[in-house]
Amino acid sequence: MEILRILGLKPLTDVKSVLCVQPHPDDNEVGAGGTLTRLAANGCQVCYVTVTDGRYGGSDQTVSADERVRIRQAELRSAGEIVGVSHHYELSFEDLGSYSEYEVMSALIPILRDVEPELVMTVDPWAPYEAHPDHQKVGRAVAAAVLAANSLIKPDCGQPCTVPMIAFYASAYPNTYVDVTDFWDAKLASILAHKSQFANDEWPLLVQYFEHQAKQYYGAMQMAQGVAEPLSEGFAEAFKVLSPRQLHFFPAALHM
Ligand SMILES: [Zn+2]
Questions:
Q1: Which residues, other chains included, contact 256 with Cβ-Cβ below 8 Å and sequence gap of 6+?
Q2: What GO terms are given for molecular function (predicted)?
Q3: Which of 17, 36, 135, 240 has its Cβ near the most Cβ atoms within 10 Å?
Q4: pLDDT of 230-239, one tens digit each?
Q5: Residue 2's pLDDT is what?
Q6: Cα–ligand 1 centroid distance for 134 (angstroms)
Q7: What long-range pairs does 212-220 form, CB within 8 A, spacing at least 24?
Q8: What separation in Å is there between the alpha carbon of 142 and the centre of ligand 1?
Q9: Cα 222 to middle of ligand 1, angstroms
Q10: 2-245 — its CATH code?
């Protein structure tokens, strides 16, 4: 689309550094594990920010919340090794806690100014039926931080920096598809590395759901590429990619 070129948005797969901010320790893999693995394999620096400690995730009531935090920290590292994550930031807000969007934005600004990523990725907080407060607050805080990092706020937290692109996964309004067929097995392995969340009887059903969704995205990708008879033989992930300019006073962003 011409407007994307005007806004300076390059192909998602060409970026050399990405900061991927997740509410919980497993969101990045579920939303974008194939794309992140593909980027890392191409030499892109992949950094993770995990906002909450995930202390209330899963269904195992035999371990304490503190123990669950430690288990999930180890799983976060294991999944990150599969993806190729080079650095982890953990903000350790309480899972489902009363922290504010402003607090998360404030914590992210110095990280953004330090890393200066070409791309910031996070969950889409504006998906119509997204009811999880952590996903709502974190997605919005990331978008706000991308804007604020280039302002004069917090002059003691690094030099203002421009983030060229933001990509939301789990979006109801995707405008970009990434072929992750060659990285599908790695994506599933990275998700399953979160054993406390996924190593249970529901996993085979979840895989079916993930694969169904990814095949639909693959077909949508081919349609967007003008393929006459789209196939659903491969797997793709979907994103809403925007320029920071589209994050403020730009209602048309919904349809772009
Ligand atoms: Zn989550």
A1: 1, 3, 4, 175, 242, 246
A2: hydrolase activity, acting on carbon-nitrogen (but not peptide) bonds, in linear amides
A3: 36
A4: 777 899 999 9
A5: 61
A6: 7
A7: 214/34, 214/180, 214/184, 217/174, 217/177, 218/177, 218/179, 218/181, 220/174, 220/177
A8: 14
A9: 29
A10: 3.40.50.10320
